[in-house]
Amino acid sequence: MMDDVSWGVIGGCVLAVSVAAGTLIYLSRKAQTAATEAQQVDTQTKVTTTEQAMAQAQADAPATDADLTARLDGGTF
After folding, report:
1. What residue ranges of the chain have pLDDT lower than 70?
2. Three-class SS of residue 37?
């Protein structure tokens, strides 16, 4: 028969394995969260850059239209 010491050792091993598994799951999720946050920052940067480019294109549109009209009227195409 197994004595109390053996059951204590088995219980301790089960506890240690459970704690190790929990720690690995926690660290994995923490790393995944950090990667997701980095992707969100990258995406936000791209959105901001795109918005700035769109605003600049809208600001440049009247001059571009005038230039194209002048080139078309002048036959420089």
Report:
1. 1-2, 4, 76-77
2. helix
What pTM was estimated for this model as a whole?
0.55
1, HSE (Cβ side, Cα atoms, 13 Å): 2
62 close to 56: Cβ distance less than 8 angstroms:
no
Q: How many Å apart are CA 31 and CA 28, to the nearest integer?
A: 5
Specify whether the CB–CB gap between 77 and 71 falls below 8 A: yes
Helices (H), the chain: 4-74
The residue type at 8: G
Amino acid (1-letter code) at residue 59:
A
Q: What is the token pair recorded at 45? A: 């940067």
Buried b (16+ CB within 10 A) or exposed e, 33-61: eeeeeeeeeeeeeeeeeeeeeeeeeeeee
* Tokens coding 53: 């480019």
